[in-house]
Amino acid sequence: MSAPSAGEPGCQKVNPYRHDRRGKDEQVRDMFDNIAPAYDFMNRAMTLGIDRLWRSKAIGMIARHAPERILDVATGTADLALEMNRRLHPSRGIIGVDLSEGMIGVGQSKVEAAGASGNIRLMVADCLDLPFDDGEMDCVTAAFGVRNFTDLAAGYREMARVTRPGGILCVIELSTPRGVITGPLYRLYTRAIIPALGRLVSRDTRAYTYLPESIAAVPQGRDMISLIEANGWTGGVATPLTFGACTIYTARRAND
Question: Cβ(134)–Cβ(162) under 8 Å?
Fold first, then answer.
């Protein structure tokens, strides 16, 4: 893969379906519609359940700021939204948005089953064109979704637009371990075992090959922080977890 041009993260060039001429947003939407029924199972299986610990750590970071209104971008099946509602009890509620109607459908069923419909509202929306006013949110979160954005810089700018000055950004994203032992083991696991498991349980044989490609291509660590801080945020911090297999990025909305 050729190096991305200046200011253009490599993840923007990695699409779910290699020979599909449609835009990345359409491909991502269709991919998640296809895998929505198996998504939660695959998340638990791929991470051995550790994804729950990653979300818990992120929520602990958010809790210090006691946000009253939270937007969960790329909410998927609403795992993070549900856990934030349970632990944080934001007084003005949580809104979750996602491109995929299939994912929102699964998430809505989970919200209703949890009796959380009064506190969590899910809706289909484009993360690059959010249907909210400037400065409406106290906190914006995104779990395992920003690498799927067609324009990552624009995504951070749009999240900053809808967040009040001083509000919080919290992004949980998969990343690549660099250790002498953990690096090769991770590559074997993501490039061979995960795609094979995905083919067994998912209708979309390409989705879990796209996953390790998109992880490898997304900016990580200091590079991700630089991108965040160049697009409306300040004071960025990267917190790696589980030998670097996941990273939590936090920042504050810059004052205009």
Answer: yes
